[in-house]
From TrEMBL:
Span of domain PhoU: 22-108, 127-210
Secretion signal span: none
Family: Belongs to the PhoU family.
Annotated InterPro entries: PhoU (IPR028366), PhoU-like_sf (IPR038078), PhoU_dom (IPR026022)
UniProt keyword annotations, A-Z: Cytoplasm, Phosphate transport, Transport
SUPFAM superfamilies: PhoU-like
Gene: phoU
Transmembrane spans: none
Species of provenance: Variovorax robiniae
Pfam family, one: PhoU
The protein, known as: Phosphate-specific transport system accessory protein PhoU
């Protein structure tokens, strides 16, 4: 993932912390897959397994952050090395937040099951969005491991699809609640669940932006797609 440095120990430390980020990413991915399964099957046990992983994710995020602080203090990196460490720190924070969103999904699934409305609510679209969000995170982690800016741009574009799914689902859910007010409580749970899925897409998009920051030294947040593509040419 990183270029060779004059200090082989520094190089080893960078590779080590990068590997830990990929490990954290795999753990969070697993959380999402279990959460999507819990949603598709309305499976309370699967939802419980998602929530059981939260402590491990939080602990690993803190450990990586501690290691990064130690590397920066001891090595005083500059230029691209410093950008890489900053981006790793931000990526780790975003992965931890993805884990939080997976946990929210699991809690909402359990709430919907307990309400007794699980089988009557419209959930096909939200499952599609969940699969899109899960796939986007996988692509973001792969692109981060390779520092692939072309893949990063693709991820930025794909996040729009998740936003469109979310907007369409909200409109449908509002109509559904108006037609059957008895499902308002469970429908609101489903709405919060949909928002959590949208946020997973947003965090994946953030990771893609960090890739461009590492490679080009440009902060592309709040930048149009045309400007981003022009900067990468």
């Amino acid at each position: 993932m990183t270029e060779k440095h004059l200090s082989s120990q520094f190089d080893s430390e960078l590779n080590g912390v990068s590997s830990r980020v990929m490990e954290l990413g795999g753990m969070v991915e697993s959380q999402i897959h279990k959460a999507v399964y819990a949603l598709s099957q309305f499976d309370a046990d699967a939802a419980d397994r998602v929530m059981e992983t939260e402590h491990r994710v939080n602990t690993m995020e803190m450990e990586i952050d501690r290691d990064l602080s130690s590397i920066i203090a001891r090595r005083q990196p500059t230029a691209r090395d410093l950008r890489l460490l900053i981006a790793i720190s931000k990526t780790t924070a975003n992965l931890e937040r993805v884990g939080d969103e997976a946990n929210k999904i699991a809690r909402m699934v359990k709430s919907i099951i307990e309400s007794g409305s699980a089988r009557t609510l419209p959930s096909t679209e939200i499952r599609i969005a969940a699969d899109l969000a899960s796939g986007l995170l996988r692509k973001a982690l792969d692109a981060f491991a390779r520092l692939d800016t072309a893949a990063a741009v693709s991820i930025l574009k794909e996040d729009d699809l998740i936003d469109q799914e979310f907007d369409g689902f909200v409109r449908k859910l509002v109509t559904y609640m108006m037609e059957d007010p008895r499902t308002i409580s469970a429908s609101l749970d489903l709405l919060f669940l949909a928002k959590a899925i949208e946020r997973i897409g947003d965090h994946s998009k953030n990771i893609a932006e960090f890739i461009i920051y590492i490679v080009k030294g440009e902060d592309v947040r709040h930048t149009s797609m045309e400007e981003i593509e022009s900067a990468l040419q």
